[in-house]
Input
Amino acid sequence: MTPDELKEHLKQVKYPGFSRDIVSFGLVRSAALVDGTARVSLAITTSDPKVPLHLKREVDQCLRALPGVQATAIDIAVTAPKSPTPAPAAGGAGAPPGIKHSIAIASGKGGVGKSTFAVNLACALAQLASAAGRPGRIGLMDCDIYGPSVPLMMGLQGRPEVDGDSLVPMERHGVKVMSMGFLVDENTPVVWRGPMIMKTIQQFVQNVRWGELDVLLVDLPPGTGDAQLSLVQTLPLDGAVLVTTPQPAATNVARKGGLMFQKVNVPLLGVAENMSWFVDPAGQRHALFGSGGGLLTAEKLGTILLGQVPLIGAIREGGDAGLPIVVSTPQSPAADTFRTIAQALLDRLAQPRA
Output
């Protein structure tokens, strides 16, 4: 049996919490059958000690079912902080030293306004940082490889500068930004497999000159796939925020996304409910997507509801114009909502971990 045939069988082994297999994720360094012993080497990055044990058991069961395999020898190399307590300084091992906190902004499905939320949250955090005498210390990393919309929403165009081996993030509204949208032509679709996505995210973390940041927000694509695993293996996250709309079609999938983060030992900082209601010209409130879904999702995941963002045309218009409502209309109720959520997030980060 050849190494390629062994790897083909190993595609039956899924990484815990994901639908993708360990081969597609690029975790199998080598595989060979020598004198009846299947020898496999895996390389993973995780802070959860249960993951290597789970993978070793699953790989062993997979290989022993093959004809000609009498024994297995499974080597798993793990690169990770040994324990989440005490919390690692400056964002943890593997993170650029200047990043204090890294937070994933995620959703189970598309269409819930996650990127719009991430952009306004970043601008709200930048305003709070500036008011505290710490301007220019908020970053936004757009990891939505296939549909990067952050450049449009932030009003940024062109290419980032290159300084030596590092990219220099572009900056606007007090936020440092890096996105795949800066690196490809707007008319060129990105058609990539998993390993290429993983490599790009690694470069965004390790080869971008972020400088000193209080918070780096990471706008993830919807779902629980390559980008999510690449991120948790590359950048130790201080937590994740789930964005959902109130209706069950969104909250049911968002809950699965939250469970994925829990399985890879990333704390859930809270749930943000978007498009919570619409107020008509007569001042009457309409729950177009139902109500209570965000709070119910938070309760099921054992976290908090950070806030509810109403469905307002000006929020969409600001994103299309490159002027988030937090910047264009800072005294509006919507801007106040984003700043309240930003402050709640900072308060959560300041709490000691259990």
Summary: The longest helix spans residues 114-131.
